Every structure is written in C-alpha cells, then in structure tokens.
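Hey, quick one: can you model this chain's 3D structure?
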Amino acid sequence: MGEIDGFAIPADRNPKGLPADLVFPWEQAAFVVNRSPYYKVENMDAVMRNIVLSLGDPNAVTAVMNGWNSAVSSLAKAVDGSGGQIGLETANERLAARWVGAAADSATAYVGRLVTATRTEKAAILKMHGKINELGAIVTSGYITNIAHVHNYAARLKDAEGVEYDIRVQSLRPDWSSTSMFALGKKLLGEFIDITEEVKEGIRSKLNDMEGQVNLIAGEIAAVEIPGGIDDTTVKDVESWQPRNPTGPPWGTPS
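Sure thing. Here's the predicted structure for all 255 residues.
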C-alpha cells in the first residue's frame, strides 16, 4: 500500500485561544484523512482543510462586534451623555437656558440638527450591529456543526474497523481486503463529505441573504445627512447674543 502522508497537527492546537467548542479536532481529522485512501475516497484532506478555514479566526467576529459596540456607545454618549458625560442634548438645553437672540437661536437649532442626525445614525448602526451578530452566529454554528461531524464520523469509522484512533503512517491496519469493511468505510466517508457540503451550502445561502440586508443598512447609514456649519456672520455678531437669567446649574450672573 505504501505510506500515506499524515494530516499535520499543530504543536499548539489552539493558538488563538478559542472556546473549547471551536477548537478543531485535529487528531480525529487526521484519523479520517489518513484512512480515506484505503477506501478509495479522494480529496479528504481538502475537505478537512476547508472546514478548518470555513470560519477563519472566530476571534475576529468578536473584534468586529466590539468595534460596532464602541461606535454605538460613542454616539450614545455624544447625544445623551451616557456614562456620566454631558451630551449634546444637555449642552443644547443649557445654551437655550442662558442665551437668546439670533446667534443663540442659530446655535441651538444647529445642535438640534446634530442630535437628530446622530440619533438616526445610532439607530442604523444598532441595526448593523444586530446583523453582524447574526452573521457571526450563522458561521460559528456551521463550524461547530462540522466539528461535531468530524468527531462523529471518526468515531464511527473507528468502531467499524475495530481499532483505536491512530494517526501514525506506519500503524497497524485492519483487514483492508474485507469487502464488507471496505464498503462500510467508503460509505461512511462518502456520507461525511456529503453532509459537510450540505452544511457549507446552507451557510452560503444564509450569508447571501444576509449580504442583501447588510447592504440596505449600509445605505441607511450613508444616507444620514450631516448638518452644514453655522452661519459665521450670525454667530460672531456679539449683539445677537443676549443673556438671560440661567435656569440650569449656577454658572455666574449675566451682566
């Protein structure tokens, strides 16, 4: 039969510090890959590699989510002062409470438009955040499903052969000449490839649908109109800033 190239197992099987359910079952995968040529099943190495690469780095999903979380938090702080900050709404209320006149009216109207635009953008970003969360769940679920299939079919093949997992090239083999064992092993490995393909197609279909939804939300974000600047002439006109008695926290007495 000759030797079979082994399925490489990383020295550190979890270099990215993934949760246990996302750690790829390297030894079981090697067992299936190394057995497949005896059953005349081709491309099993490529199938396994595709599973390994199907998610890439799951930590990247978390990193993207954290980025959108930060955007939502920053917008919330800007508008309503979340986290103990003074937001645009409070600042605008204080401005209106202390000043009247054309310049004050122009400033408060401008800040009001900023608040409205920021709230609209925040709502759209929250929707995008939700879709990215769904996206990560779809891909991660498919990856976990494939990992379970690797475990399952490695165990079934082991039981069929009556041997323990053995990923060594020069290991003891069962009676490969047995017609019934050959047929069963080939059937099991064929099922594994088929079910892996089904999972991949299911993920692809969901991702295509998700892409359309994400594009719509991206359009909403891009369509948010950012107010133009305040009329410098009006704002710089000292005469049009007229103080009135403050109704907010004390800050001094207008003269």
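One thing worth noting: The chain has one domain: 20-187+197-232.
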